[in-house]
Amino acid sequence: NLEEGIKGCDVVIMLRLQNERMSGALLPSSQEYFKSFGLTQEKLQLTKPDAIVMHPGPMNRGVEIDSAVADSPRAVILPQVTFGIAMRMAVMSVLAGGGA
Q: Taking 70 as the threshold, does the pLDDT of residue 41 lie above it?
């Protein structure tokens, strides 16, 4: 379960639940998903005190991550998204023959 998985972690990386791909899935509701797998402040307390929270975006607040966690000082989501865009652009440039 999530609690066991994040106990004592340095980093928690959340991923977006892709609702558009969930038709026919064994998922009763987004509320049930959040109850079991959503990252809340209470669950975050199980990690190391200085653990960071990552998420590649876009976020479904209240589904995979609580807004209080996403907006907390421990979240590095905005820099992660910003740098991720720059990294993908650089890789595409190299692959397209544009150099580094």
A: yes
